[in-house]
Fold this sequence. Notes:
The protein is of the alpha/beta class. The protein has helices spanning about 30-45, 60, 95-105, 120-125, 125-135, 145-155, 160-180, 185-215, 220-245, 250-270, 275-280, 295-300, 305-315, 320-345, and strands at about 10, 15, 20, 25, 30, 50, 75, 85-90, 90-95, 110-115. It has a four-stranded parallel β-sheet with strand order 7-6-1-8. Strands 2-3 form a two-stranded antiparallel sheet. The radius of gyration is 25 Å and the shape is elongated.
Amino acid sequence: MAAETFNLVIDARPSGPRGLLAAEVVLGRSLLARLIDQGLAAVGPGRRIAVVADRGQISKVSGMISDANLGRVDLVETEPADSSAVLRTDRLYDGRRLARAVRRGRDPETAAFWRLDRPERLAGAEQELNRRLNYQPLGRYWAFPLAERLAATLAPTRIGPNSLTLTAGTLMLVGVVIVGLGGLGPFGQAATALAFAAALVLDTADGRLARLQGSCSAFGKWLDQVLDELADLALHGAIAWSAFVASGWPGWLVLGMTFAAGKYMFLIQSLTGEELEKAATAGPAANVRSPRPLQRFVGLIGHADLRWHLWIVLAAIGRLDVALAAYAVYFPARAFAGIVRKGAAHA
């Protein structure tokens, strides 16, 4: 087969601590199968790709190539001479960036976001890929690139992810204090917005740094969640207090208490009733449906990334009371809906 007939090549030869990396399973699929899908999508309909494997790997690799792709995927023992577009099974690639790179004739390496050349990197691959599949809707465009660079810079140092987590929490609490003091005018509003923005970058970077350093831990995850919830409750409490002081209307204090109670009930019913809904959807007769557009929209409103960006914007213009008013309704409503749903599942 002439080399020029292939539009992209996948190198399946790299090995890891457990053997052939192409066979490693991440989120239920082998790395090779994932790369084949990304490669075919990148080159477009009707075009072909090659998978390169050593002679001793041929039988194992051939079993990982889907029959549905046999017309577009060739398994070869030697890398084609003209193979500038090469994907490696010791990398994880961003599908969109890969497609753009292939279309523009750029090196696919520019689309790689995770290397699997060390045991700790392989161990963190599933968590990293899962996190990317659940990207921040807004933060992915600015906070995540900054967090990536920061984590890559700190990876060889002794600074650990928990330090970033604590710093992010401290910045959030600094903003909370400014809000509780009444905002302190335009300067205070700008300082609060900047503190929240910096905290978002650090909160995004801590997990990536943990994966880069191979230092992921249950304590780190717990610390991150505790500080996030502390900042959330403290911020809305400070908003309620400052709004009450400024206006004298006690309804702001009621909204603050309603938010805290609603958020608490939302978390409790979410964490403690999963088995009820699982039981209702179990069995061969179960009718499991994907979330409807309205359900996805409602869930998106409560997404931590969107709420964090809302805080940044509203802090900058001195209207964080809008966030309190909105989420003092949102979380109690979500909690009530979850309780009703789980009750119906148990009935």
